[in-house]
Every structure is written in structure tokens, then in C-alpha cells.
Design brief:
homotetramer; 258 residues; mainly alpha; three-stranded antiparallel beta sheet; 11 helices; 55% helix; 6% strand
Chain lengths: 258, 258, 258, 258
Amino acid sequence: MSDLHWKTGICKIKPNEVRLRGYRVDELMGQISFGQVVYLALKGDLPSENIGKMIDAVLVSSIDHGATPPSALTAMTIASTGAPLNAAIAGGILAINKLHGGAIEDCMGALLQVDDKIRARQISIPVAVNELVTEYKEVGRRISGFGHRIHTEDPRTIKLFQLADSLKIGSHFIAIAKEIETELAAQRGKRLPINVDGAIAAVLCELELSPALANAFFMIARLPGLVAHVHEEQTRQRPMRAIHPENHEYDGPADRSL
Amino acid sequence: MSDLHWKTGICKIKPNEVRLRGYRVDELMGQISFGQVVYLALKGDLPSENIGKMIDAVLVSSIDHGATPPSALTAMTIASTGAPLNAAIAGGILAINKLHGGAIEDCMGALLQVDDKIRARQISIPVAVNELVTEYKEVGRRISGFGHRIHTEDPRTIKLFQLADSLKIGSHFIAIAKEIETELAAQRGKRLPINVDGAIAAVLCELELSPALANAFFMIARLPGLVAHVHEEQTRQRPMRAIHPENHEYDGPADRSL
Amino acid sequence: MSDLHWKTGICKIKPNEVRLRGYRVDELMGQISFGQVVYLALKGDLPSENIGKMIDAVLVSSIDHGATPPSALTAMTIASTGAPLNAAIAGGILAINKLHGGAIEDCMGALLQVDDKIRARQISIPVAVNELVTEYKEVGRRISGFGHRIHTEDPRTIKLFQLADSLKIGSHFIAIAKEIETELAAQRGKRLPINVDGAIAAVLCELELSPALANAFFMIARLPGLVAHVHEEQTRQRPMRAIHPENHEYDGPADRSL
Amino acid sequence: MSDLHWKTGICKIKPNEVRLRGYRVDELMGQISFGQVVYLALKGDLPSENIGKMIDAVLVSSIDHGATPPSALTAMTIASTGAPLNAAIAGGILAINKLHGGAIEDCMGALLQVDDKIRARQISIPVAVNELVTEYKEVGRRISGFGHRIHTEDPRTIKLFQLADSLKIGSHFIAIAKEIETELAAQRGKRLPINVDGAIAAVLCELELSPALANAFFMIARLPGLVAHVHEEQTRQRPMRAIHPENHEYDGPADRSL
């Protein structure tokens, strides 16, 4: 039999000691936020408190978007058959793909392409963005992260960019994203505002996170929302009901503020 | 066709407005922690900052436990076949069941049974716990959340209980859990210390969360850990390798402190 | 490290030789039907040709039931997000639970309970069935496998029972199922005809298959149907469409006969 | 609300009538094989009896390949945590990807590319194959479906080709596959025999099935095998055991023949 010994750099477990990326988990508890530990788990080093706040805000921004997204409908449909919670959640996660949640990764790709142009040839953001938008247009490809079927001015985008500024996270990729919005409007004569996926993409680029992890942030953010929908389905709805994908109304708490 | 109109109390979506349980999501961003928003999504009301800190600590406590748990092995095995990230994560979540992660829910059930006894008959914690432990023993049933295959004194348990105290979360269910540990030692002549699942169970009982949501906390906590293992598999390991479930060593950052 | 050596009785693999339960797979190919090899895989021994025909008929009976079952809706919803085929199928399979597909297992349980009564006390089918139906009624429990939301006389049930007779599969559990139908009508004053799940349950009992495997037959049967729905979604429908769970019409080939 | 009416060409359901692609399912039961109904579901028309036999042989060929493939290990790992059968199976299906099962689709792509060359330019099989193998070599791409980590002369390949001949399924794509094997040996100086995935690819091309459905045949075939492994795990093994991916031995029925 071949030698199957292998190595991993994530966790070290000893009796009465659990370390994540070198830190004792019990030391991290109560000291660092969930956003910080997510970054630590994925990037390998502990981020500043501000980065943790930024990640928390990213996660809060995408915690739920109602009952119409396919991930919520999938999770509710599975739940209605009597499935355990984790099966319904796994189903919901299987619906997070290129066309639902995947815009973050694709948009990060576009932002990084612009950045590559800037670095390689020492050109300005507007010049690089003009090139990219033209290139995409020539091959008939959409730039992900711009435009939304419901929102024309996504309040979550505005807040993410405000926080990136006040928390001193960075402005380079946000400037690129805004320039793409401007250039798209110029070339297409139609406004396609940066949506929440595009805004998250810019923030994750500022944080030097890999596009391969983009979907992870959407999944981590959305999981509690999916749980809420599954729990509501299990406790409030008739089993095996036919779930209309649009014909529902909100009857939760009235509008309120912090 | 039947009328398929239905109601949901989780999210309200209007153009340029996304509300979770009545609150504008963009207002929540930057103001409340991920732990608070998880509670808001699942319970329907915004918790205190302390409760948010407690939930963050619960989530941090279970973020990962190395490469041997079946959820990590499942996610890595699927990833090794060339699967996209979400498929590997969905697989990992399917491995979170009665015997892995499920202890939280079962332990909450036991703690709530003791509490029922106390309330119904105005008896003391030790009397109620003695009854419960005896009842379980008679039917040959284990009480979940006690004992661990590796840890004899789980540092995460100690920290969760310290935080529950300093954050003024409550002490009733923690006292019950500790009494069960004492009673198990007395009846069995063998120490079965409260493990991290048992400690989380006590904390979630203090927070009046439903046992039906216990597994959700484990899934939310563990998801970033699963992503870390999948990403490591994808970027560091040979595709289609045979993954030994134990024969690995840690080669990540050296021990360090905050 | 502990010795992890383990044993399995399913397949033996050597260079240029693949054996299932002792038989060379290449010898089985072309000689035995898929129904026979399913039985061989699950029970460990090769069944008669007639049993193979019966299993093929069971699988054909449940290959699809249109686009309204939750497994089909789940698979289509996931497919609409750009998921690969296997993710959509996995989602569909997660929707096969107690309330969808699960009736076979529950009905087998009821049929075996009646059989236990008969064997233990040498009583007749009608006496045993009367007891069981009364017992279920007293605790307010439905007997699975009887009644259908669409069909009053399921043609698949009729054919399964005809085939069980002509293929000499057995008649004992079918007689029990028919007696339950009679008794339910007598006690409730309302006809709840044996549905296809109930009929499959009776057939699987005749074949001495474990109720723990009941769901497997439904999943094996339905998988090609789920693939057909996913493929249709991928090739015919607009991505990310809202999928109405009922408001569709059939536009495939006209009615035809063999 | 938008009009969500949609159309589907797979099943027509009326009270007491279930039709698949126009045929009454109860008429199909007992008259056509599972292989035939799979083809009917996926292609829309009833195939000849010989095609049904060929598909049955394809399904039998891939029903299982022991406990080392990642789909089996995934399903067993999930099962060991106390998961229900369908969750373990869904997990196994999530492990059927590009590198496990996916070779059929990729090989079909290569065979169809050769066929395109032949049709477009009226060239011979050897000339077209020489071109393709050279093209793949130049870009450093493997042709899927050739070579096996265990088998040097896969008996399932031999049998599939024999059956394709005796059942008069076709010989064109099989000839292409064999020529690729010859050309690979010539160009690389090393024999990479057609494996079972390559042989299935050739057969599915003869049957004019879409490469997009290739993975479906692997999933349909392998599902009973996965069920067998899950059932064995549930009934024979200790829950939560560490599952060694290779260190097992076969202890099932001794070698036997039909």
C-alpha cells in the first residue's frame, strides 16, 4: 500500500488544545469577531479589527434577499418534504452557482483584469476600464456585478463603499468598479449601477482575497438566511405545499430602525 | 388552479430597500455584528450587543476541528474529484448529523428536560438532574454533550462558560450542565467532561433558542472551516488522491498568541 | 495510529477483473437485466429472471411523475442557476424524504407489522389487518401508500399486481395491502385506493427486501426522470426563471401506444 | 405578477393516467426494459429492444467499482454520521465530476471531434485521429477514456464492444476509439488501452446521445452500487469510524459464474 501521509496547514489538534492557523481557538473566542476568524481561516493570518468589521458588513449585506432567490426556494422545497435541516441547507447551497451568487467571483475577475492592465502598462483607471469594457462588448460578454432586476441604487452598495472608506480598507478597486459603471453608461447609454455583488467583489479585491473564495463569502453570509426560510417552512407552512416562486407577501415585523 | 398565495415574515424587498425582520439591511451593516444578525434572522428580534458577542464566540468556538471530522473529509473527497466549491461544501454539510454536530440539539433536549422537571415540580437542580441521569441510564441512553475522544478538559467549554458569565448571558442551564457532569461521574465512577457541544447547548438554552436550530449554529460556524479545507485540497493536493482519514500532520503557522 | 483495516462484501477488484458479489461484471453484461443486477448489488445474490422483470417494472413505474413533485422542482431550480447536472440531481435526491417517496418504506413497515401479527398468533389476514387499522386510527396515524391526490385508481398499481401474479412473485403482501384498502374503506367510509407507493411496498415485501432499502428503489427509478427534467431546463428554459410549481402544460409527443 | 405559464415535453399526468413521452407508463411496465425507458425518458422516443439491451449492459458495466472511488467513500463517510440514505447518496453523486465519471463526456467530445473532421473533409479515420491526437499533444491535453490505474485490458470494454457488434448498435465510433488507442501507442510509445469510460463514450456516440447526458448514465449506473456501500456501512460498520480509503479487503461471496 502506498504511503498516504499528508500535510495540512489549517488546524492543530492536541488533547485540550485546538489551534487555528497557530492561534488557540479558546483565546480567539470573545476577543475577535466572526468576520476576523473567517479571514483567519481562509487567508491564514489574523486581520485588523477594521478588516473584521468590513467582513462582518459584507456578511450582513448578503444574509438574505427574501424568498424568491433559487437558493431559498430550493431549501424550502426540500424542507417541505420532511427533510432534516442540513439536507435543505445543502440543497440551497447547491443553487449558489454562476447565475446566483457567482457574480462576485466573475466581477472580481473583471476588476483584477483592469488592475493587471494598469500595473503592466502604467495606464490610468479610465483608460484601462475603457479597454476592458470595449473588449467585453466585442465578444458579447456581460460584466458581472452591474445592474439588478429590482434595485436601481442598491443601498447595500452605498454602505459597503462608505464602510470601506471609513474603515480605511482601500479605494483602488472601488474606483475601478465606479469607473466601469460610468463607462458602461457611456458605451451603452443605459445605467447599470454596481449591485451588491459588484460592491462585495471590489471589497474582496481590496482585501486581497482570491476570486476562488468569492462564492464562500456568499455562502457563509446566506446560510443563516437559508436557515430562517427552512425553519419558517417547517414551523409555519403545510408540508408538501406547492411553493409559488413569487406570489407571497411579507407579514413580519413592521419597518423599524436601530 | 389553486390559489398559491403565501406569507413570510423574514424579509421585505422593495426597489432600493432590503429589510430583514423590519430593519434595513444597509442600516444594520457596520452597526451590528454577524452574531447579532444571525440571531435577528433566526429569532426575529435584534439581540443585545452582549448576546451578539456570545453568539460570535459560539461560532468562533466551532469554526474548525481539523481534518479528521467526517464533514471535512467529505468536503475534501468531493473537492478532489474536480467539484466546484459549493458542491464540496454541500457534501460537508450533509455529513453534519446526529453523530457529528448533532450532539448540541440532543444535549439541549436533555437540559430542557431537566428544566421542565424543575419548573413543574419546584425541585432543585441536583434532584432533577439525578432523576434525568437515572432515567437515561435505565433505558441505556447516553446524554449527548459529555465526554470527548480527544479532550479531557475542553478549553472551549471553559471559555464559553466564562463568557456567558462576564457577558451576563445566564447561568441556569450552565449549572444544569455542570450538575449533569457531576452526577455522571458519581453514577458511572468515570468523568465525562462537558464538551464544546454540551457547552454550546447550555448557552443556546440560555438564549432561549429552539433545539431545532441547534444544528444551524454548528453549520454556520463550521462553514468557513470547511471552505478552508476545500481550498487547501484544491490548491495544495493532487487531484483524486486517496485521503487518509488520520495520517496527516500539521505544517501551518507555529503556535502564536494574540 | 490505530489499525484501520476493514472488510467489505460488495466488490472484488483485481487487475482486469471486476467482480460484484462474486460474479464477473463483464459476464453479467448482456446476460442479466439492470433489475437483476440491482437486486444482486443490494441483496447479494442473483435473482431469477422473473424477479429481474418485476424489479424492472417497479423501476419503470416510478421513472417520472411530471414536473410538480418537489424532487423535480428542486432539480430544475438548481439547474436554472447554472449548476452542473450532478448538483441538480443531488438536490433532487435530497427532496426524496418521508413525504415524497418515503411512503414505500412506511407502507412496508405496516405490511410487515400485519405479517408479524399473522405469524405470531396464526390469525387470518382480515383479523390482523382489522387490528392494525384500528391501532393506527387510535393513535391518529395514517397508513402510508393509500390514497393519491390525483389518481383514484392508479393504473401502475393494477399493472404491478398483475405482473406480480403472472411472474409468480407472490401474493401474500399484496393480499394484505388489498385488505387494508378494504378495511380503510369500511372504517372510514371513504375509499383510499392503494397507490403506486403502496403497490411497490407490497412487491418489495414479497421480494424480502429490507424497508431500509425502499427509498433506494424510488431513487434509482426516479433518477432518469430527474435527468430528463434537468436537461429540459438546461436546453429549453431561460436561466434563472421563476419556476411555477403547477402552471405548466404538456407539449410533448401525442398519446401513443407500443 | 408576470405570467409564469411554461411548457414541458416529458410527462403528461391526468387522473388515472401517467404518460411518459406519450406512452402510458402502465403499458410500458413489463413490456420494456429499464434500459429502454431510460432512453425514452432522455431522448424522447422508444428505442429498439437491442438498444435497450445495450443500455442495460452500459448500466451493468458501471454499477460498482469497489470501495475506493471517491463517490463510494463520500457516501460511506456521510452514512457513518447517522445520515439518512438519500443524504449519503446525494453526497456520493456530488463526487461524480470531471475526474470521476466525467471521462465519458470528455471522451465523447474527442470522438465527436474526430467524426466532425471526417464528415467535414471526407478524410479517413486514421488521418482524422492522427490530427486529433497531434492537436491534443501540442496543447498538452490528455484524451479522456484511455488508460486505467488498475486495468491494462478492461474486460468491460471488450464486452461492450462485443455487444455493440452482436446487437448491431454500430461500429463507427468504436473504430475511432480503437484508432485513438493505436495512435496514442504510436505517438507515445506506451499503450493506453480504452477503459470502460472510453468504451461507454463510444457506445453513447453510436446511440446519438448528447455528451451533456454522459454523466447521467454514470450516475444512473452507479446509484445502486452507492446504495450497497451505504447499506453495508449502516448495517455492518461502527458509526463515526475513520474510513481508510484503501486498506480494506473483500470478504463477500467467493468467485462464481452464471
